[in-house]
Amino acid sequence: MVEITSIDELALDVTTTFPRWGTPRDCAAAFAGEVREELGLPCSLGVAPNKMLAKLAAGLEKPNGLTVLRPSQLEAFLEELPTTELPGIGDKMGEHLRRLGARTCGELGRLSLSRLKSRFGVIGEVLQNMGRGIDRRPLTTHYDYEEAKSVGNTITLNRDLYDAAELRRTFLWLSERVGRRLRGQGYCGRCLHAVARYPDFYTVGKSHRLRRYVDEGRDIFEAAWPLLPPDMGERGVRMLGVSVSMLLYHCKPASLFEIRRDRLTSTIDRLNRKYGREALRRAELLPGLPGGYSETVQAGWHPG
Fold it and tell me: What CA–CA distances, in Å, run from 51 to 56, 72, 128, 129, 297?
């Protein structure tokens, strides 16, 4: 069972197949040997009970290492491992965790769930599980992929954003991109989810179910923007996100006004496909986004 997680990374579940190769270590070594022989490239591997720990182990001895983390070793291994070694926890998050008394994974795993949730919001439980080495996500193989259950985008700025007008404009830009992706895949949806993360990494999110289906950026924005806290500009924001779920495939507008707007939107989409993704955009989105950000495109919403 193979899950391709990026252009140069994958995860394998060898629970039922490793006896063909010997031990899991033997299986990993054979894999690395095939890569070297066929491609002439180095390959770092990690063997562990779940995806998160395997990814962690693979990064311990780059560029040609092979690390095995056995269940019996995990408690001692995580006890002194800095939290910043965990996938997805950078220096800033690590500093916030240190202020709570969680310098290592062991200390993070022992923090109370209520304290983590009050400090970080919806990602508190994810953080506690990471500190304990828990990752219940199954592998998703290419033949297991289902039709999209949600479509969303998040944006992480390289500076905390306090300007309310700029926050609003950024969220509209995200909504427009989600709408364009929905239309490109032939979907519309009626459940909106908005999320924001403050400079202290506290994360808030809220959902709302509409009576009608939408696939247009302005509709998504007008329904999702009120879900965000009104005091965001006062507290500052480092990440914004919006997603649409409860999708319907090939839904068509019903009223005459919606039909005319749908034709206009389709024309804009065609022009942008021909001349550039945002060659034609709303005037209020000019001249563009704040400089310095990283974007995440999501097919299926998940925290963290």
Answer: 9, 17, 16, 13, 21
Contact residues for 127 (Cβ-Cβ < 8 A; gap 6+): 89, 97, 108, 116, 120, 304
Category of 64 on φ-ψ map: left (φ > 0), alpha (ψ -120 to 50) or beta: alpha
In one-letter notation, the amino acid at residue 220 is I
Q: What are 47-81's pLDDT values in tens digits?
A: 999 999 999 999 888 888 999 999 999 999 999 99
| Chain segment 169-200, per-residue pLDDT in tens | 999 999 999 999 998 888 889 999 999 999 98
Q: What is the pLDDT of residues 137-148, one digit of tens each?
A: 888 776 655 556
* Average pLDDT, integer, range 34-42: 91
304 domain-assigned:
no
- CA–CA separation, 106 and 271 (whole Å): 54
CA max distance for the chain:
66
Asked whether 237 and 200 are in contact (CB, 8 A), the reply is no
- 15 Cβ contact partners less than 8 Å away, ≥ 6 residues apart: none
Task: Pick the catalytic residue from 3, 9, 284, 295.
Answer: 9
Which of residues 69, 99, 120 is at a domain's end? 69
My answer on whether 26 and 56 are in the same domain is yes
Q: What are the two backbone dihedrals, phi and then psi, of residue 73, each rounded to the nearest 5 degrees?
A: -95, -15
- What residue ranges in 7-62 does DSSP mark as E strands? 9-12, 45-47
Hey, which residues does 152 pair with through a beta bridge? 243, 298
The answer to whether residues 167 and 287 belong to one domain is yes
Total domains in the chain come to 3
85 is catalytic: no
8 Å CB contact between 130 and 124: no
Range of the domain at 191: 150-298
303 falls within a domain: no
Angle between helices 217-224 and 164-185 (to 10 degrees): 130
